[in-house]
Design a protein that fits this description.
Chain lengths: 229, 236
């Protein structure tokens, strides 16, 4: 039998991990863009809020934040439903994982994007406005494509860290790849086999992302002259 | 909040049930793994930049595997996976080592930080100025003297900003200690949570402690960087 019959479960766990990582990436990039915009804003309130967000989140381990947000949120939600006389709502671990990972890595993306935004010359944005583009058009046509060129190495790094930290969600009760292989190992007494397999699957995922990132990097560097040193 | 603090402040900071716990254990894990990792990484980084493939390839493979898998999986592999092997169970010294959660955790943390630090140092060594190396060669320095006097002193300094980042990440990585039953800050927070049911306060105190430790480390590294990188003219 394929891995003592655990093959399909391992595949399902891998799929959960991939979905979790990709959805958290979407949340994190959205929060990161918002955070970078707020940090570069002219008014002080968004700036202070965004600085507090990136500083506090990046100073605390992701695991501690995950437990704090997941279990803390559940307790406040229980209080709220009690107060309103509703039935208790249990937070779905998958949704909680996406929100928590997205919230944590949003802070790292905000710093990456902030640096990249600042690397785009201001004159380019001004000429966009001079051509009569609206603010959003300037963002989509001029700022974003050039910003991504500078942001990609950082984005790639953050993605790899995010992908690896999905292993932690098994600790808040989600049946991801790590949880499935731990269970499989304990039942079949083949812990070594299943943990090694998990490691290899993660290695395959990071290797595939390396190739994709390299392709993206080539795509966004179109038109940049390379200098041989 | 007050319940958690009055009952558990000692456990959070340094001891519980007559043993070390909390901040003391977290810092001890950090110091052990980072200092061993630092020493091993210097040797591996020199091998990593070697033009001989049979030296550089195994080191590349080691860093690739350890940088491409989650630390939590590495801890599980060492703590649960290796101990399940018969040959380790039946070799008393190995069995004694892998039975201890603390030993396994320090081994996993050290291997993990060694992989990242090796790449950081190797990158800095590769960026050494060719002129300095030529000058050292023309002075007749041996390979060892070249590394000891010229390449390493400047490469390690230039690696400092990236290295300080790695140390902060290691501080955060030690929070996985409770999965190997080591009583670090987060383990105490979990105990406090199950004793008082004050989830937000229990984990919140842990988060604040990590925040303080992170800021202290950042501050220490910044001051040190300002001293040893003064010649590069970096003003912050």
């Amino acid at each position: 039998m394929f891995l003592n019959g655990y093959g399909p479960l391992i595949l399902a766990g891998t799929w959960v991990t991939i979905q979790l990582a990709l959805l958290s990436l979407v949340v994190a990039i959205a929060l990161g863009l918002l955070g970078a915009w707020a940090k570069l804003s002219d008014s002080w309130l968004p700036r202070v809020l965004a600085t507090a967000y990136t500083t506090l989140i990046r100073g605390v381990p992701d695991l501690v934040l995950m437990l704090l947000i997941f279990f803390g949120m559940q307790i406040y939600l229980n209080d709220l439903t009690d107060l309103l006389g509703l039935d208790p709502i249990n937070i779905d671990p998958f949704a909680a994982g996406v929100v928590t990972l997205g919230f944590i890595y949003g802070a790292y993306f905000a710093e990456t994007f902030r640096g990249a935004f600042m690397a785009v010359p201001r004159g380019q944005l001004e000429s966009g406005t001079a051509y009569g583009m609206r603010e959003f058009q300037v963002f989509r046509r001029i700022l974003f494509p050039q910003m991504m060129r500078h942001a990609l190495p950082g984005v790639g790094n953050n993605w790899q860290v995010l992908l690896k930290s999905t292993a932690l969600v098994s600790l808040i009760g989600l049946t991801d790849l790590v949880k499935v292989s731990q269970d499989a190992g304990n039942v079949t007494f083949k812990v070594f086999l299943f943990i090694s397999l998990t490691g290899l699957i993660y290695l395959a995922l990071t290797t595939v992302s390396n190739f994709i990132l390299y392709g993206l990097y080539r795509r966004y560097s179109v038109g940049v002259r390379e200098v041989m040193l | 909040m007050t319940d958690v603090l009055t009952q558990f402040w000692q456990a959070y900071l340094y001891q519980s049930n007559g043993g070390w716990s909390g901040v003391a254990v977290t810092l001890w894990l950090l110091v052990l793994s980072v200092s061993m990792g630092f020493a091993i990484s210097i040797v591996l980084a020199v091998g990593r930049v070697s033009p001989r493939r049979w030296i550089s390839f195994p080191i590349w493979l080691f860093t690739y595997v350890f940088r491409g898998t989650p630390l939590y999986v590495q801890i599980l592999f060492i703590y649960a996976g290796l101990y399940s092997l018969d040959f380790i169970k039946h070799t008393p010294p190995l069995a004694a080592f892998f039975q201890s959660g603390f030993d396994c955790l320090v081994l996993a943390l050290t291997l993990n930080t060694t992989a990242y630090t090796t790449e950081i140092f190797a990158g800095a060594i590769r960026a050494s100025s060719a002129g300095e190396i030529e000058a050292a060669r023309s002075f007749g320095m041996s390979r060892f003297a070249l590394y000891r006097r010229i390449i390493l002193p400047s490469a390690l300094r230039r690696a400092l900003p990236a290295y300080s980042n790695e140390v902060i990440l290691m501080l955060h990585a030690t929070s996985l200690a409770f999965t190997a039953t080591v009583p670090d800050i987060l383990k105490v927070a979990r105990d406090a949570n199950s004793a008082t049911y004050q989830t937000f306060a229990s984990y919140g105190v842990a988060a604040l402690l990590y925040l303080c430790l992170s800021f202290t480390l950042i501050w220490l590294f910044r001051s040190y960087e300002r001293r040893v990188l003064a010649y590069l003219g970096t003003r912050r």
